[in-house]
Amino acid sequence: MKEIQHYIREINDFPKKGVVYKDISPLLGNIEAMRLAVDKLIANLPHQNIDKVVGIESRGFFLATLLADRLNAGFVPIRKPGKLPYKTYQQKYDLEYGHDQLEIHQDAIQMGEKVLIHDDVLATGGTAEAAVKLVNRFDAAIVQLNFIIEIPFLNGREKIKKQQVFVLQD
User: Fold this and answer.
1) Which residue segment(s) compose the domain that 117 sits in?
2) Is the peptide bond before 15 cis (omega within 30 degrees of 0)?
3) pTM (2 decimals)?
4) pLDDT tens readout for residues 5-22
5) Helix, strand, or coil here: 112?
6) Residues 111, 80: contact at Cβ < 8 Å?
7) For residues 20 and 133, what is the distance between their CA atoms, to the nearest angstrom?
8) For residue 21, is it within any domain?
9) Any idea which residues carry the catalytic annotation?
10) pLDDT tens, position by position, 42-97
11) Residues 6+ positions from 128 with CB-CB distance below 8 Å
12) Does the residue 5 lie in any domain?
């Protein structure tokens, strides 16, 4: 089987000029590659019971739900504004090509629960930092943030340096 990196397609100038988009669609389309990615993410998770897996919209949802199932944990979506129907907490953030905001339901996580945060790409760290701030509102324990891909030159780890981070590597 090819290594996971071979299932990541790069698309230049998307969503705007100068950005190299990391497309995980080929990974998601290959069941062996997707299973291998989930296996590796779980294998590199500290040996703790996870209560909730938080997936960040939208590409973070794909593997976060699989991780939640494998870890026997609940799944919590963090979404863009106006996408969640119940009362939410909001957090603004910067990303590599603009500004945005994330939201989480106010009853999504219980105090003291152990949480894994998952997204597909760690770039500037703005999205991950916003997710950490949202989860911290619940006084939950963030066990780890994990990602499929990292774009190191954007220094995203700096914004989440107090957290345990794992990036899938082949």
Assistant:
1) 47-167
2) yes
3) 0.94
4) 999 999 999 988 988 899
5) coil
6) no
7) 27
8) no
9) 59, 96
10) 999 998 899 999 999 999 999 999 999 999 999 999 999 999 999 999 999 976 66
11) 56, 117, 119, 122, 145, 147, 156, 159, 160
12) no
Helix residue ranges per DSSP H, the chain: 25-28, 31-43, 59-70, 126-136
User: Measured between alpha carbons, how far is 21 from 131 in angstroms, rounded to an integer?
Assistant: 21
> At 103, which amino acid appears?
E
CATH number for the domain including 126? 3.40.50.2020
Place of tokens 């939201």: 103
Distance CA 86, CA 133 (A): 19
Residue 8 has what pLDDT? Answer: 96
- What are residue 48's phi and psi, to 5 degrees? -135, 150
For residue 126, what are the contacts with CB-CB under 8 A and spacing of at least 6? 93, 94, 95, 96, 156, 159
Other beta carbons less than 10 A from residue 72's beta carbon = 9
Distance separating the N- and C-terminal Cα atoms of the chain: 12
